[in-house]
From TrEMBL, chains A, B, C, D:
GO terms for molecular function: nucleotide binding; oxidoreductase activity. Residues 13-132 form the Gfo/Idh/MocA-like oxidoreductase N-terminal domain. Keywords: Oxidoreductase. Residues 141-251 form the GFO/IDH/MocA-like oxidoreductase domain. It comes from the Bacteria. Pfam families: GFO_IDH_MocA, GFO_IDH_MocA_C3. InterPro entries: Gfo/Idh/MocA-like_OxRdtase_N, Gfo/Idh/MocA_oxidrdct_glycsds, GFO_IDH_MocA-like_dom, NAD(P)-bd_dom_sf. This is Oxidoreductase.
Length: 354, 354, 354, 354
């Protein structure tokens, strides 16, 4: 919050949540918890569902008509948690009605749709934000700091695993369901000058679901480093681990270990490059191993969604791009589309659109 | 052992170990521990190294001359633990001298070299065995039983991770160093009618070691199932996990969890296929989720290398192919070579030689 | 719920929550989530605190006057989440006003206070329930079934650890703060004919807080089995594990391992008793070791507090004792008081009051 | 080793190992591995057992006659790994024959026996060492440094758990079998001015083995801090954890986690003591919580037994008391005897003999 004087508390931002499915209720709860927003509507095509989410003790209005929201002058901002295929229409209508827009990941169903939203928001000077929730966890916020400060040295590799017995989605494969988390985190923590160049993806649909339920993405980064993501709906065990290997240190994030989510290892392999290279044997001799301490930094306990909602308010108030703006959503879409094309071509490497 | 009457204990098999580096001492120790063998020699080009391995209390003879071993009529069997590049020459000489041969993995430096060894052993009626040690752990022996019995149902996917801060090898990349373990296990546990068809491999050499230090292999199996292997020399943490997903159950092997190495989960996603398929919505409706118990079977505590050595003796005595014979070593080489070609071609999918 | 016909849904039970501190908000949330109750009031001496808990979107009334609640005929039930020292007065007043009463653990500040509440509720035919929340987790519900069914055989020992960096309480020591959880679970899962006979307690106040921050309780059970509880406010790591050893099997409950909370081990030591005992050596010979499988049963994901609230409704409707009735709260008080006396006497063993 | 010049390598110390049961073979292996010793004999009343331990390739002599060893002038040192009940006789005979003596834990069957050995060794100027192996692990060596340096601040509590499905011993209970490890570690890491004052012990023999199979020891330290030890032969899972809580930091040693055995937490509860104490409320206000980083120091990979053997050689050569000398063994016996008396008196607190 940028307002610090007592008594100078700004008026809350009127907000409406569109979509009362899996994610919408979490948005409602978090918007309610902060004085920065005043929730005015919860909208769903299925009015009963919206009512059930609000329950029997709420003063918020349920509706199935989102034009009522767009017409409500007290609504300055919307949050869209509908299926990805509807993001373009709903978000575009909201932008055209002059509302700031927060969209659940992925930003849109295609890179081109996403670009249209980014351009519209730019044109109108409105905030377009993508709800990359993980970027607002204390762990990822800290990882971003650590990676971008150079504390790990030069980035060597990123390895991410996100597997679980998950809901087989009706409209999207496991890559579009789960990898946006890993890709948005990757995009968030990378230094500004490191970009994704190309993607290869392999997948399988062993249960005959009609779409990949297991997938592996390999991402070539502009520095020659490699990132790899494993997503899987069929795993009986839940794993959520990301390793970020650097030339000086390696960081391991285990999101399921609440007492030690982030560990920074001063262990690794060093290679001292002699000035005149050539003699292989001599080169070998210069490999050495570090086996130093491990440090697990203390992290706060802030709820990610609450921090995301605060960033939305702050971006609206400051008329600035939020940390996870439409452009970051667009970069994630670029990687996802390349991955889909690769998957359709037996793992062929595909350049990432910009 | 096939001899069970007291007094009917056969004469021990004279054996020589060639190579006193990392693995040779383990072979010496295990050959010593069984009455099936009598260790006669430990050979290394570096005689001092062989002597140091034997120590000051041993009656075994150290030598740096392996022709002495080949000339020793009391030696019926050799065990070769020298670098892979020398396997062809040393093993071929031993076979030609009429000795049974056990070779440390990989069987040879190339698929063609391996094939020559297999053919030579066949021609001479000698045992050619590959020391795929993991196949002799109680865990993998049990996994083989479980997978091949159909207890897991149809095989859906295999995912294997073998990462650690490892020695960067002088002559081979991380794939040739570590993936033989995973590939030999995969080969060992798969039903006979399931074969590896093609491989794609992605890797990186972020430290400039001159060879890949991180690699990912994707293997297409003949049934359409997928296998994936992650090997990494640079990881500060050690992970050795293999997941075998099936249509009925999923098995997780965590080799670093001694009290629960193997877990069998009755959890998963089921898809009931209606007779006339067509209506997508109807198909969706038939996805269901199982969330049953998990069972961790009791496993024995047998040392793998001891069991491997016993299998070698038994194969020699029975003049039969050992469980991990030259052909299994050859299949592993086929996958490794395809992976190397893929790696050199930016992950292009490559068919596996047979 | 005992009403199953559509349209036969009974009127909700009017309920008021007294105490808006740490636990009260959880009660409010769970009462709201079930149609069995209608929340009418949230009461706290600090009216602002009650208002903050309700937030800006709620139709529930905040008050700081609990006599208003007692006078409200639409309130049939109250839930008391105030400090233990106030339980007697508040609960007694509520009972005398004819309300059913749910009390946060411990039931009261002393065994005698607890007994007065039990007797008052009995006299008036009202439900008196103690919120032993853990007893309503799927894990503990299952453990109760398993232990009482005899699946573990004869009970040998119970070992419970509940340690964490916890809030040093103003009015009670670590035993009164944390051990009620373990004691209520113990009371809940034990077969009806097994009772606590005596308690020894050791503790320390190393930080000079004026009360024990670390404590160990040893409980002698009527069968000769032993139970032991370790509670600690100063531990930097969080552990919540209970082991229940039996003659046939041993159960381990790890509440912090969501994917495998309960594990049942078919491992143990067996002693076959020969008919004529006497020869020690012969007795020794009859010790044998089982090393069988481990099974982790699938457990539901029900929220404990929701299940507790449902049990409260069901007990009120059925005019029956709830699973964790006042008497169970009283038995827990008996053990706590014995532990306190032991602690004051350097660990002297103290009989448990009945 | 105190000799550092090349060529100045001293003659090896002739050593004999007495007892070829569970522990003896480990001693033989480690004495063999160091040039400081020359193993001359392995002695066991069961000559065949000694021969089996040596195997078919060893130049060491097996014997069942320990007087032959005592008469051998080339033997300067013995290592005794026989049952505790025989320690007094065997060790006393060895000392009287002028041999240095290493004894497996516990030093002797009683405190008085132990004292006689200590006095005899003192009188003769011979090394008497107790094989408290854990004290020579890199983890415990480091813990000793950390605790004694004051890095943890003032010692608050020690909590140790050592449970497993273990061999029910014929001659001793679980306390005498397992607690010597924890007690010797406690004795080793404590600052010199902190001593054990009194012990209370609770135990159970639920399987009717004739001796306690589960036991809990509470130890009052001279500073008012508390130590607690849980040992158990019946647990289906293996736990070996020790927590050392201090006023500044808390250390957790998990011996079964090879990648993170020791963790030092900068988390805890602080109490700022105002000069004039009196007002309880004010005191409460001064409790604060630290939630800082955790550091897991890098530890070497040295085998403990090898380091113990080196310390034995070094003490003999330097004619100095070894780190775990007879006196430390005696202090452990003092605590064990007090625990046994307490156990026999239903947990009564018993003073520790000095």
């Amino acid at each position: 919050m940028t307002y610090s004087l007592a008594g100078d508390q700004p008026d809350p931002i009127g907000v409406a949540v569109i979509g009362a499915g899996y994610w919408g209720p979490n948005l409602v709860r978090n918007f309610q918890a902060t004085p920065s927003f005043r929730v005015r509507w919860l909208c769903d095509l299925d009015l009963d569902r919206a009512r059930r989410v609000l329950g029997g003790y709420s003063t918020i209005t349920a509706t199935d008509d989102y034009s009522a929201i767009l017409d409500d002058d007290e609504v300055q901002a919307v949050a869209i948690a509908t299926p990805a295929g509807t993001h373009l229409d709903v978000a575009m209508a909201a932008l055209r009605a002059g509302k700031h827009v927060l969209v659940e990941k992925p930003l849109a169903a295609t890179f081109d749709d996403g670009r249209r939203l980014v351009e519209e928001a730019d044109r109108r000077g409105l905030v377009l934000m993508c709800d990359h929730t993980y970027c607002y966890t204390p762990a990822v916020a800290r990882i971003r700091e650590i990676v971008r400060s150079g504390e790990l040295g030069e980035l060597h590799y990123v390895d991410s695993v996100r597997i679980n017995l998950g809901l087989v989605q009706r409209d999207i494969d496991v890559m579009w369901d789960l990898a946006p988390h890993d890709l948005s985190i990757l995009d968030f923590v990378l230094p500004d000058d490191v970009t994704a160049v190309a993607v290869a993806a392999h997948g399988a649909d062993p249960i005959g679901a009609g779409r990949s339920c297991v997938a592996y993405l390999t991402i070539e980064l502009s520095t020659g480093a490699i990132a790899h993501i494993h997503v899987n709906w069929l795993s009986p065990t839940k794993v959520r681990t990301t390793m970020v290997g650097g030339s000086k240190r390696t960081l391991v994030w285990d999101d399921l270990n609440p007492t030690q989510r982030v560990s920074i290892f001063d262990r690794g392999v060093d290679l001292t490059m002699p000035e005149e290279l050539g003699d292989d044997e001599r080169r070998e001799a210069l490999i050495s191993y570090r086996s130093g301490d491990m440090v697990a930094p203390a992290l706060g306990e802030r709820e990610a969604l609450r921090a995301m909602v605060d960033e939305y308010a702050s971006a609206i108030r400051g008329r600035r791009a939020p940390l996870t703006d439409g452009r970051s959503g667009l970069r994630v879409l670029g990687m996802l589309e390349a991955a889909s094309r690769s998957l359709a071509n037996r793992g062929e490497i595909v350049e990432v659109a910009r």
